[in-house]
Specification:
With 248 residues, chain A is α/β, with parallel strands linked by helices. In chain A, 40% of the residues lie in helices and 23% in strands.
């Protein structure tokens, strides 16, 4: 049985049809990425799957007792709300201090437990969100543009962390991203979304699919060309990365 | 002991400060100050309604404040420009209440007691309402604390954890109505929001966790209530406003103190 399955989802918001006839499912242990241009309904799809939105038509079925670890796109904590990393990890359920420390380690931010959430850098903050998500020993980890606001090396290393988390926990991973080059290589399956499912399959299959090319591909090569292109400019990002680290 | 009006006033102030201090943290974190104003001002309309129907004033205040709470909760889900709407409702209810009270035949009630509070006249029944209401607010907050905190941090995180953030917000809004009923005799409808916000804001600079902030906020509220009462007795000033002045003074001291400490 699939961990979570959406069937023929229709969703509109403010009179605008966002999703139409979308079906997708997630099997245990696989890494699935939803890609699509801005406004294609990727985040909406994820919010439907976690139950934050209700579809007008169609249904979302979860395996009974499914544990979902959710890493949101961005999290704004009001400056009037003081909260340490450790306290944040204990929401909504208390966890053992050892488990919290281990989750921070797994997520790549050991020892930040006593820091204020507001003092964390962007990369650390996302990793703390990841730590919180894996604390509940999820069957499925859902990430919504989790690397938004991170620079190139930062997001690449974040996705490597996701892969190692998947290896450790054996959970399924469902990601939403526009960073094709990074996520494509790490995924078992890619779903290309633009209001409806344009195409679906392994990264190799999707990257040569006509529908995918139409959305992203500029000429030949698709995701790989994009990857090379961005890789060529890596030194700029590296530079930025260093200055960011120094500022901490 | 309860025969002494000063003891009753002090107890009323402390009971109110506990409920307002705890709930006030959520009001600050979620920026619900306008929610507080709207529910508090609706209480004046509640006074008028109670007089018109000859029911107890406490009952009228609770019913109208709860109705306002449900109304603004419903509106907040519609995605309308909520603060403008709250401004209309809040001041509309206040004005309507002030007008309606004068139109009730045969009633010559001193509305000042409900606008600015009249803590020196609280009786045993008022004390029971204040401490009972305060206990309910504290108990519900205790019960819902983790869920409300998660929903405050991020509604989506709450959904993913199986918590309905809309329900948590409804509970918070209803609790606001509870605090209004508790506080109206103590500081009055016009200054209830101050009692919610100032102690919590004062506590912010000295807390590392939400729980610590809530505890400190209660302490500041109690200090302001007792200090304000004492001040009012010495200088013969109105008690409710004196409590708020004391709270504001503590906020000023706290802000300076936190700056110096940093």
């Amino acid at each position: 049985m699939s961990l979570i399955a959406a069937k023929n989802i229709d969703f509109s918001h403010g009179g605008q049809q966002v999703l139409q006839g979308v079906s997708l499912s997630l099997e245990p242990g696989e890494i699935v990425t939803i890609v699509g241009p801005n406004g294609s309904g990727k985040s909406t799809m994820l919010r439907l799957l976690i139950g934050a939105l209700k579809p007008q038509k169609g249904s979302v079925t979860r395996k009974p007792g499914l544990r979902v670890g959710y890493v949101p796109q961005k999290l704004h904590i009001d400056p009037t709300l003081p909260i340490t990393v450790e306290r944040f990890l204990n929401l909504p359920h208390r966890v053992a201090a050892n488990d919290a420390a281990a989750a921070l380690e797994t997520a790549g931010v050991p020892g930040v437990g006593q820091r204020q959430m507001s003092q964390l850098s962007g990369g650390q903050f996302q990793r703390v969100l990841l730590a919180r998500a894996i604390l509940g020993k999820p069957d499925v980890l859902m990430l919504d543009e989790a690397t938004q606001g991170l620079d190139q090396p930062g997001s690449a290393s974040f996705y490597r962390q996701i892969e190692s988390v998947r290896r450790d926990l054996g959970c399924a991973v469902l990601m939403v991203s526009h960073e094709l080059h990074v996520v494509m290589s790490a995924s078992d399956r890619v779903i290309c979304l633009n209001g409806h499912v344009c195409c679906e399959g392994t990264p190799e299959v999707v990257s040569v699919a006509p529908a995918y090319r139409e959305l992203f591909g500029t000429g030949t090569g698709g995701a790989l060309a994009l990857y090379r292109h961005e890789h060529d400019h890596g030194h700029d990002h590296d530079h930025h990365h260093h200055s960011h680290e120094a500022a901490e | 002991m309860l025969d002494d009006f000063l003891v009753r006033a002090a107890l009323a102030g402390v009971g109110t400060a506990i409920a307002a201090g705890l709930l006030g943290c959520f009001v600050v974190w979620r920026r619900m100050a306008y929610f507080g104003d709207a529910t508090a001002h609706a209480a004046i309309l509640g006074v008028a309604v109670a007089l018109a129907f000859g029911t107890s004033i406490t009952f009228g205040v609770v019913v109208v404040a709860l109705a306002m709470a449900v109304l603004i909760h419903g509106l907040s889900g519609q995605g309308v420009a909520i603060d403008t709407m709250l401004g209309v409702l809040s001041h509309g209810a206040l004005a309507l209440g002030l007008v309606a009270v004068t139109m009730i035949p045969g009633q010559r009630i001193d509305l000042d007691a409900y606008l600015f509070g009249d803590v020196l006249s609280v009786n045993r029944f008022d004390l029971a309402v204040i401490w009972g209401g305060s206990a309910i607010v504290a108990a519900v907050l205790w019960w819902h604390w983790a869920g409300m905190l998660t929903a405050t941090l991020s509604p989506d995180l709450a959904y993913a954890a199986g918590i309905n953030p809309r329900r948590e917000q409804l509970v918070l809004t209803l609790l606001l109505a509870g605090v209004v009923a508790v506080a109206i005799k103590v500081v009055g409808a016009l200054l209830i929001t101050a009692l919610l916000i100032i102690p919590a804001a004062t506590a912010r600079g000295f807390a590392r966790t939400p729980e610590r902030m809530a505890l400190l906020s209660v302490c500041v509220g109690v200090l302001a209530a007792l200090g304000g009462l004492r001040f009012a007795l010495i200088f013969d000033t109105p008690v409710g406003p004196s409590m708020i002045c004391m709270a504001a003074a503590l906020f000023g001291l706290g802000t300076v103190g936190a700056k110096l400490r940093a």
